[in-house]
Amino acid sequence: MINFPVLSSLDVDDFGLFPGTPDAPGLHVAFDHGLTLFLGANGLGKSTLMQMLYRLMTGPFDIPGLDGSESLGNINTRHTPLSPAKRALFANRDAKGARSASATLKLSVGVHKVVIQRRLSDLSLLDFQIDDTRQPVTEQHYEARFLNLLGLGSLGDLILLLRHIVFYFEERRSLIWDPSAQRQLLRLLFLPPGVAGSWLSQERTILELDSRMRNLRAAVSKEEEVASRAAATVETATSTRTELVTLEMLQLQEEERRDALEARMAELDTFRQGLRLELLKVEQQADSHQREYERAKLAVIRASFPKSSDTTAFLLARLLSDRHCLVCGHAAPEEAVTTYTTRAAEHDCLICGTALQPDSFPGVEFAGRSLELITSELSALQQQQSAARDNVAQAEEDYLAAAKELVHLATSYEQRALRISQLIKQLPPDEHDRREQLDGLSALKRRVAEMKDELTQRQEEFSSFVQGENRKINHFSESIKASFGEYASGFLIEECELTWAPYSARVGQTGEAVSFPAFGLEMTGADFVGATRRSSPDQVSESQREFIDLAFRMALMEVSSAHQGASSLLIDAPESSLDAVFSNRAAMVLARFATRKSANRLVITSNLVEGALVPDLIRLSKADREPSNHVVDLLRIATPTAAVRSHMAEYHQVYERILEAALDE
């Protein structure tokens, strides 16, 4: 049982949207018992007024996700500060940013009178009074004292109460078809604040534990995959290590072979250079002897023709030295050259080849040596030259062979090094690290199991706790059904009744379902035999849907109100979802709420529309007063829009017709 806020008055000052009149600047409204109707055209601030009344009580806080389609059952109802954009809701409706604007709401909570004043630019608290006593102006103090007066356990519960019971916004949940929302509202309406808070605390603990357990379990699954891959790596590690050892051994052997080859090549290069020098020396000696040999042969030729002209000697000299015959002009045959050379060397007659005595050519020597000796020395040098060339060729061949082997060795070394690198990467992590990884995984598994056990225990305890509290809430079910029946019968033609229908749902995403308190709806219909359960808003018409849900809220307010059933109900634009047939019935139902309790407040905003709803509502709600006494004329108070300025006279005519119609019986 709680105390609902019963509105007394609203004062809005220095707010551009509501400049008021010269005689009465601003907007000032007294909420007497019964109906207060804000009447105006589009754009004159009707919805802004509703939001202002709502935010004066909630302050700059809200519940994230409350506007979405997420189930209220598992939503975190902890309040959080509004975003800067939402906090500037009213500042954005004022050309001056509402810098000096404020709103003051006076209301009753039980037997206490409360004053709440906030700055409209940022919703900060300016004044807070209880029974004419100023209170510390802090949100923390306001929250503690105001919630205590209401009989609520948290600011989140206040937001839920206002948004889903007290205010009937255009964007709203259909409580009768939303058991998860009923679960939260029945908790805060019919359980003592401490018990309702304990319920909420246990739910939050389970939700957080469920979320942490699922996150940790997901992390364990990933770690298990990593460990599984590591285990597979270990199984193949033996063959990898064997191949790695073999390759590394071959690599060491080739490194030794490479060092030996490089040393061998250095030796071969030195040896090759020595042979090249030796060959050069022999070639120089042979060339020198060759020239000496040629000169010696010419000397013999000259000596062989002592009595003839030098012409013959010149012809033979050219034949032997240049292989050219000056007589015929042709190249001399090799036979002729050999023949004359042999005859000269053997001291035979050069022309006929007759053997002559050695002394037949006295004085034919060259540099003190005979032609025979020179010929012999030249032959020896030529043999030495040939041998030196063979030695150099062999040395070159040996050097190139060593260089080729070294290149082959380097290629195989590089290829083996690449394979060794690949094998090293395939090796499993260090055994110590792997053991620590497995130990860590085991610890995580144990922690998941512990959290699961703790979660199961808390879910069982919570289920038992809720089962006990269900019986307490069920104690009010007959009163709620009776109240609903009275409201619904005034609006619906079909027979309609509530049923006590607890529903099962998990808290979080794991564990056993818990049976929560909830009401269902049964209704007759043309196509149904008897009253039938209507589990979805799609199973009734739009008009039926709106007022079934409204009747349910009224019944909850009436039964749960601790102070003589007094409460406030604020509805934004009820005419939008009603057709002409149901408008009179809707006026009767709303008027019944407004007049049922002497302290009830019914606050409605409505467009200037033709039809019976608004006049009927005024007439049925406040028959003992002048209609204009409980209608707030926004055409007069609010800043006119371009459409209102252009059609002001027509709007006033509609306004006057509505008031006149309210006077008709």
TrEMBL record:
Stretches assigned to coiled coil: 272-299, 371-398, 434-461
Instruction: Give the matching Gene3D superfamilies.
Output: P-loop containing nucleotide triphosphate hydrolases (3.40.50.300)
Q: Which UniProt keywords apply?
A: Coiled coil
> What is the recorded name of this protein?
AAA family ATPase
Look up and give the organism this protein is from.
Terriglobus aquaticus
